[in-house]
Amino acid sequence: MSLRPLRIAALLSALLVAACSTTVSNTASPASEATARAQLEQAARAALGKLYLNSKNATELSTNAAGILVFPSVVKAGLLIGGEGGKGVLFSADGAKVLGYYSVAAVSCCLQVGAQDYSEAMILMTPEAIQGLNKADGWAVGMGPTVVVSNSGAAKDITTTTEKADVYAFIYGQSGLMAGLGVQGQKITRLVD
């Protein structure tokens, strides 16, 4: 069995994730990086407001949360091999304080075609979930805390009295066309301050 198709797939995946990723470049000036972070924070606050407006569950869960990680724009694209990327902000449970800036990336290989942009909010219910985000090697969804995904009104039975997971992920505001939306296999990494 030849390894060439796997190498080509890996290379294409890396290129796709690089194209989708909106990670801040290290060559940016401190002033331009501060402006970019202010814009990201503003976009994340607007995306969180949209979630609260459309999801009673998210609003209720956030009252007992340790923090809320919001990615206002995650871009996902694929043609057999897919990738996604975006940047987000971790807010304190009340949304008043910024606790950090993060990037998300993922690569997938399956039957897929299309491109999509969406918002994602992760309501972190425990301090341990937040600690996991700040580890040097990042946090891989599916390898760490228990994550429950709610998509467009799903999981209506989640309330503050029935919650059992460490993290509740909400995917909303989708535009574009792509099948198989989810958070499995995502890698979340803290951006350098």
Describe this structure in words.
With about 190 residues, this protein is α+β, with helices and mostly antiparallel strands. The protein has one domain (about 5-25, about 30-190). It is built from 4 helices and 6 strands, in the order H-H-H-E-E-H-E-E-E-E. It has helices at about 5-20, 30-55, 55-60, 125-135; strands at about 65-90, 100-125, 140, 145-150, 165-180, 185-190. Strands 1, 2, 3, 4, 5 and 6 form a 6-stranded mixed beta sheet that branches. A hairpin with a 5-residue loop joins strand 1 (about 65-90) and strand 2. Helix 2 (about 30-55) crosses helix 3. The chain is globular. The relative contact order is 0.19. The model is unreliable at about 20-25 and about 150-160 (pLDDT under 50).
H-E string: HHHEEHEEEE
Identify the overall geometry: globular
Strand content: 35-45%
The counted number of beta strands is 6
The number of helical elements comes to 4
Please identify the structural class as seen in this structure. Answer: alpha+beta
Main sheet attributes: strand count, strand direction, barrel closure: 6 strands, mixed
Residue stretches low in confidence (pLDDT < 50, at least 5 long) are 20-25, 152-162
Mean pLDDT: 76
Integer-rounded radius of gyration: 17 Å
**Number of self-contained structural domains:** 1
Helix residue percentage? 25-40%
Distance between the termini: 45 Å
